[in-house]
Amino acid sequence: MADPLTPQVSDRICAHMNDDHAEAVLLYARIFGQTPQATAARMESIDTEGMNLTADVAGQPTPVRVSFEQPLQTSEDAHHTLIDMVKQARQQAQAAGAS
């Protein structure tokens, strides 16, 4: 059974994303956070409505909020949403690079 999105679950998700999926977090900031000039990003927290990131923009830490299309309830919802979002972000980044 999936865990509810508590602060402890948020911490676990953030640690995993920052340690193992830094490229995805950067794409979230660039594409969904409308910060295309970001050179790095960290996921600070995730809640039912969205995620809070800190992006490196021109050497400055910049807070970025990315909202979800649908509210999340559980860690499983977060897992599926984050995977779907990185797929969308990669497609958008690829399309932008082709134009």
UniProtKB/TrEMBL annotation:
Protein name: Putative heme iron utilization protein
UniProt cross-references to Gene3D superfamilies, sorted A to Z: PNP-oxidase-like
InterPro entries: DUF2470, Haem_oxidase_HugZ-like_sf
Taxonomy, superkingdom: Bacteria
Domain DUF2470: 10-85
